[in-house]
Amino acid sequence: MSTLGAQTGPGEHSRHGAAAAAAAQAGTRLDQWFSSYADRAHGMRASEVRSLFAVANRPEVVSLAGGMPNIDGLPLEHIAEMTAKLLRERGTRALQYGGGQGEEELREQIVEVMRYDHVAAHPDDIVVTTGSQQALDLVTEIFINPGDVIVAEAPSYVGALGVFRAYQADVVHVTMDDDGLVPADLDRTLTELERAGRTVKFLYTVPNFHNPAGVSLSLERRPQIVEICRRHHVLILEDNPYGLLGFDGDPMPALKSYDPDGVVYLGSFSKTFAPGYRVGWAAAPHAVREKLVLASESAILSPTMMGQLSISSYLSTFDWYGQVKEYRQMYRERRDAMLSALAEFLPGARWTVPDGGFYTWVTLPEGLDAQAMLPRAVTNLVAYVSGTAFYADGQGRGHMRLSFCYPTPARIREGVRRLSTVVRAEAELVDMFGTTPHARRGDSVEIPSPDQV
């Protein structure tokens, strides 16, 4: 006899009611599954500024926060015709699943793109990913056990820190200056961690036009960093989304060019073409590449075929490098507008002078707290990202990241002018009442908004 419609007696109702009550008690009134989450999920929280971006993205607010590329200069007519042709001639392939490693024709083109960074790779070394953010996640997944150490620059990219903390890595910061990562401090830090018995899995670095600091690792320091990591047997994770966007020409040699087997190189088409396609890549040593493919297949089966073939068509049918040169000029003009406005309106602050990329790193006058000041800045119709987003250990309150990639030069100037009124008001409060205590951040995992990256 089927039991699908069987009735239950009073005793069973009582037991089910008790079980339901226990389950509800283990959860919360808002989330009955609270006690079922993995430990790492309990530490996840939205970015400290995510809640403000609903306001900050209004047209009357000048956002100096987001790292969105300005794609107004893209040849949209060409892209439209290219896409139509792709769908007519290869639509059944473009709309189908693909291989986990990515399309060979695109991997061959990626190898050519990397030659600008002096990297001699083979298509078999490349794993196509859903943006370089997925590549960050995959590398961390295959290397990190809870409690392992990742060494990273101070400050460091907020999206990377979120991934590292999600996999329960301990992030140890190393000093940067205007020439990038400081070799002596890296060597000292790795030595101290070894003596303490800590397992360092890799160094994470953004050597070109750093996000958020805006500086680049000097040519002299690049082989030094590679030699230090080789000597300590530490892998380098080189994240290079901005490398082609230097204002003074082609990029310096990538770290991977000095040690192909000691570096996993991450690249992306989001900054040099269009982020909407969500295509990036990792170039890795053979054994690492195999694990990255397996991890990617487990996560997403295969990267987007439509995105891959679209980018491949763009690279083969358009002067893409000429377009990159146009971007360089556009971002240079915006950088100049930013630096000019800072000199005019914020003479009491200090800032980095980027030679490419999207960002400058501002150090506020002594005693000012960028995190506490942010809501008041948004009220005054200007937004930025507080420096605290870019550290794993609660540092950064005296800093802010300003982005010049998206607003027009006139909007940049107006945004800095608005920001200066907030800074002056905060400085007056500090002079009157003193500084506020700097709270230490907990162990939560900050998940950035796309507007912040």
Task: Describe this protein's structure.
With 453 residues, the chain is α/β, with parallel strands linked by helices. It is built from 14 helices and 16 strands. The strands form 4 sheets. The chain has an 8-stranded mixed beta sheet with strand order 3-10-9-8-7-4-5-6, sandwiched between helices. Strands 11-12-15-14 form a 4-stranded antiparallel beta sheet. Strands 1-16 form a two-stranded parallel sheet. Mean pLDDT is 89; it is low at 1-10 and 437-442.
Topology, pairings included?
Blueprint lengths: L9 H17 L12 H4 L1 E3 L6 H4 L5 E2 L12 H19 L9 H11 L11 E4 L1 H13 L5 E6 L3 H9 L3 E8 L2 E2 L1 H13 L4 E6 L15 H11 L3 E5 L23 E6 L11 E4 L2 H15 L4 H13 L2 H26 L4 E2 L7 E5 L6 H10 L2 E2 L1 E2 L12 E5 L5 H25 L11 E3 L6
Parallel strand pairs: 1-16, 2-13, 4-5, 4-7, 7-8, 8-9
Antiparallel strand pairs: 3-10, 5-6, 9-10, 11-12, 12-15, 14-15
Helix pairs in contact: 4-11, 6-7, 6-10, 8-9, 12-14
The SSE string, one letter per element, is HHEHEHHEHEHEEHEHEEEHHHEEHEEEHE
Largest sheet: 8 strands, mixed
**Strand residues, percent:** 5-15%
The strands making up the biggest β-sheet line up spatially as 3-10-9-8-7-4-5-6
What structural category do the secondary elements indicate?
Answer: alpha/beta
- Care to count the β-strands? 16
Poorly predicted spans? 1-10, 437-442
Q: What is the overall pLDDT average?
A: 89
